[in-house]
Design a protein that fits this description.
It contains five helices and three strands. With 109 residues, the protein is of the alpha/beta class. Strand 2, helix 2 and strand 3 form a beta-alpha-beta unit. Helix 1 runs parallel beside helix 2. It is globular and about 50 Å long. Helices cover 46% and strands 17% of the residues.
């Protein structure tokens, strides 16, 4: 069994792709001790996609494995913030400088 497995989600994480992504992520998790999921290419995420990430994290915890979310796209970050679940996943979410500046006008003057 591999120690680390890395996978990239290249489609939207929505109801239309949820079944396929669930199978892919659970299979990837089954073959390793640690799974890194790159979410940088996710353009849209709905509750079904979010539930797939929750399921993957839960199954990893039950099996004593690690799951890390990386490269959070804007859609992913917004949904994780909406559900206030950043602490549950425990992964650092990098906020691009231009987004931070837009959210904090006048900061640094």
């Amino acid at each position: 069994m591999k120690k680390l497995n890395k996978t990239t989600i290249k489609q939207d994480m929505n109801i239309y792709n949820a079944a396929a992504q669930k199978g892919m992520l659970l299979k990837a998790l089954d073959g390793c001790q640690e799974l890194d999921i790159d979410l940088s290419q996710v353009g849209e995420m709905d509750t079904a996609g979010f539930q797939i990430l929750l399921l993957t994290k839960r199954e990893a915890l039950k099996a004593g494995k690690a799951v890390r979310l990386t490269g959070h796209s804007k859609a992913v970050t917004e949904l994780i913030d909406l559900y206030n679940m950043a602490a549950y996943f425990g992964d650092p979410m990098v906020i691009p400088a231009e987004v931070h500046a837009a959210a904090n006008p006048g900061n640094g003057k």
